[in-house]
Write a structure and sequence with these properties.
alpha/beta, binds guanosine-5'-diphosphate, 15 helices, six-stranded mixed β-sheet, six-stranded antiparallel barrel, protein biosynthesis
């Protein structure tokens, strides 16, 4: 955003000469009709005791418009099949990392073997001449924090459950994250080489969480694997290919590229380095791109094998060099016509980010729930319920679901035992949910993240109080909390 010197002076009711003199004192030579940028104008305004307020709605509108322009819908006839993007989730130590390693090793062709795989945050695996993209960061934290930023990049979730250990708290957490994102789940019962495994118990336990195996009449695919002995990996890959075929995942390769940043860092010698998953279009060396307030021209691209590539199509992860600053993981990346446009958009995003806190109220909270129900903005009141003992969770869930009205459905998306964690908050943020705790406290990091993500966290000692609060909020009778 810019403003003319003349216009700025008029707005403050100060002679243009005074404004020009001030500008000179700042080392800026500007004439009456010259445009100065928002930052400079703010400084000048402050000198005269004025505060320059960027019309937020307009900057947001501009960004929305630009994005609609860059991320337009493709017509169905331009779409072609693209590889699926898969995330591996599950309880700690159940074998997520081992499984990813096993998958990568099994699929490495003889020609590639010996070549070092680069860690770029995602890797492409070849299965019978079909590709599958795996996100390297196992676990739902990465997955959900991306979703909280509005980026849904996963098409299929692999839920790893150790056959000897069975379903554990993070297994349930992971499957709820995947369900909340509406991502199909394939269960990999791991460690099948161990004598004490009991895959039927895993099936039984998961059935209780809504994942019914196919052989029991449900529609969830279970595959028995051993990441350690590399058994069952081919079958798992085939199942992924099958599920992805059913989804008919498509994208248009012939358009400006749109992708999502998976990882980014500042490299001492190479500058800002980012891995982007291209989702639509084709990205080529020399293309001008923008991602949040970072922009630039693509100087070089490396694939997951560390090989330099010139251009890549949909569902391809590549490391890119040439950005002006390190972008945020989860941020979208757009290809634009030229550098200037990239810089302009980045600048607008920067201005918008500065005023980001003003948008905080967009997340649902008990305090503004009624109003937002009235305005038709909230139809599902998503809840995450954490309690100290398992017995209470079910009781709480039942009582809260009963509070549903015609206007709003009370919808518990995750219920668990133990402290409120960062992961609960990220799930809440991604799903626009409120977190309710009973006799449990949020962890220190959860408190911080809740603040940042503007998630409403409520702690109760008595179930009755929670029911009263939520009922009152739905009916618009809640006393505001100070
Ligand atoms: P993550 O925390 O889910 O990523 O789990 P890891 O991949 O780090 O595995 C945790 C432990 O389980 C490691 O000691 C692995 O060697 C072991 N492990 C993983 N897969 C298997 C398996 O298929 N069989 C056996 N016996 N051990 C396994």
């Amino acid at each position: 955003e810019t403003i003319q010197v003349k216009e700025l002076a008029e707005k403050m009711n100060i002679s243009p000469n005074e404004v020009i003199t001030k500008l000179i004192s700042l080392g800026i030579m500007a004439g009456l009709n010259q445009d100065i940028d928002f930052d400079t104008a703010s400084i000048i305004a402050a000198e005269f005791d004025y505060e320059l307020v960027m019309p937020l709605s307009s900057s947001e509108e501009i960004e929305e418009k630009l994005i609609a322009e860059l991320d337009y819908e493709d017509s169905p006839e331009d779409l072609v099949l693209r590889p699926p993007v898969v995330t591996v989730m599950g309880h700690v130590d159940h074998g997520k990392t081992s499984l990813l390693d096993a998958i990568r090793e099994t699929s490495v062709t003889k020609k590639e073997a010996g070549g070092i795989t680069q860690h770029i945050g995602a890797s492409t695996v070849n299965v019978k001449n079909k590709e599958i993209v795996f996100l390297d960061t196992p676990g739902h934290e990465a997955f959900t924090s991306m979703r909280a930023r509005g980026a849904q990049i996963t098409d299929i979730a692999i839920l790893v459950v150790a056959g000897d250990d069975g379903v554990m708290p993070q297994t349930v957490e992971a499957l709820n994250h995947a369900k909340a994102a509406d991502v199909p789940i394939i269960v990999a019962v791991n460690k099948m080489d161990k004598p004490e495994v009991n895959p039927d118990r895993v099936k039984q336990e998961l059935t209780e969480h809504g994942l019914m195996p196919e052989e029991w009449g449900g529609d969830t695919i279970f595959v028995h694997v051993s990441a350690l002995k590399k058994q069952g990996i081919d079958e798992l890959l085939e199942m992924i290919a099958l599920v992805s075929e059913m989804q008919e995942l498509k994208a248009n390769p012939n358009r400006n590229a749109v992708g999502t940043i998976i990882e980014a860092k500042l490299d001492k010698s190479r500058g800002p380095v980012a891995t982007v998953l291209v989702q639509k279009g084709t990205l080529s060396i020399g293309d001008a791109v923008v991602s949040g307030s970072s922009y630039g021209r693509i100087r070089a691209m490396l694939d997951d094998k560390g090989k330099r590539v010139k251009k890549v199509g949909p569902s391809t992860p590549v490391e890119i060099l040439g950005l002006s600053e390190v972008p945020n993981a989860g941020e979208r990346l757009y290809m634009v016509d030229d550098d200037k446009k990239a810089r302009d958009i980045a600048e607008k995003v920067r201005i918008k980010n500065r005023d980001e806190h003003l948008k905080a109220t967009q997340k649902v909270s008990l305090d503004d729930l009624f109003e937002r129900i009235q305005q038709g903005e909230v139809k599902d009141l998503n809840l995450i319920i954490k309690a100290d003992v398992k017995g209470t969770t079910e009781a709480i869930k039942q009582s809260l679901v009963k509070l549903s009205t015609e206007e709003v459905k009370v919808n518990p998306i995750h219920i668990g035992v133990g402290a409120i964690t960062e992961s609960d908050i990220m799930l809440a943020s991604a799903s626009n949910a409120i977190v309710i705790g009973f006799n449990v406290r949020p962890t220190t990091s959860a408190i911080e993240v809740a603040k940042r993500e503007q998630v409403d966290v409520r702690n109760y000692r008595v179930i009755y109080n929670a029911i009263e609060d939520i009922k009152a909020a739905i009916e618009g009778m809640l006393d505001p909390e100070y």
